[in-house]
Specification:
Keywords: Calcium. By secondary structure, the protein is mostly helical. It has eight helices and four strands.
Length: 206
């Protein structure tokens, strides 16, 4: 049976999906800005952290990203927060915010590069190319299902930037979870019922 196969080649976009065995229901620990963080990222975080507690919540993250040409739905915001914190606290500290912000700059470039007809949407072959860039060989049947799921109109089978990010986070994130439990690159993984639910549900209920 065809599956989602990870390429052995490294990808520069792996930082968007750090992957972790951490409990998604754990608490987020305080963090700090990594050395050399650009000042505009520091300023964006501090502006959003209205109470100065060292964290921003989902609404604050949505607002600050909207000012930086990343207008995301709240669901995509929740997926981003989960991907970078490995928790469902829906809070983000300076370190996680910096990693996410830097990765989104890369992702904007990926979206624009693969939007070859410059219509502001990613179609089937463009999405296929994107996953290949990520080191994923996603079967045609799965690509079709993804386009049906994430196309806002349900007709054009194309993804705008928000849904493109949501789709890629979900596929790559679930693939990372699979690979954490995979046996020696066999394409087979063993999950307990609890670990399966903990792996999948954060992407479903975001």
């Amino acid at each position: 049976m065809a599956g989602i196969v990870a390429s052995p080649n490294p990808t520069p976009f792996g930082s968007l999906f750090p992957g972790s065995n951490a409990n998604p229901f754990a608490s987020l620990l305080p963090s700090s800005f990594p050395p050399g963080t650009p000042q505009h990222i520091v300023d964006a975080f501090r502006y959003s952290d209205k109470d100065g507690n060292g964290f921003i919540d989902d609404q604050e993250l949505k607002a600050v990203l909207s000012t930086c040409n990343h207008g995301f739905s709240l669901r995509t915001i929740h997926l981003l927060m989960y991907s970078f914190t490995a928790t469902n606290t829906r809070l983000m500290g300076p370190k996680e915010f910096t990693q996410m912000f830097t990765s989104l700059q890369q992702w904007r470039d990926v979206f624009e590069k693969n939007d070859r007809d410059r219509n502001g949407k990613i179609e089937f072959h463009e999405l296929q190319q994107t996953f290949q860039t990520l080191g994923l060989n996603v079967p045609t049947a799965v690509l079709n299902l993804l386009l049906l799921k994430y196309d806002r109109t349900g007709k054009s089978l194309a993804l705008d930037y928000d849904k493109f990010i949501e789709c890629c986070i979900t596929v790559k994130g679930l693939t990372n979870k699979f690979k954490e439990n995979e046996s020696a690159a066999t394409g087979l993984a063993t999950f307990s019922y609890e670990s399966f639910l903990l792996s999948v549900l954060p992407f479903v209920v975001a």
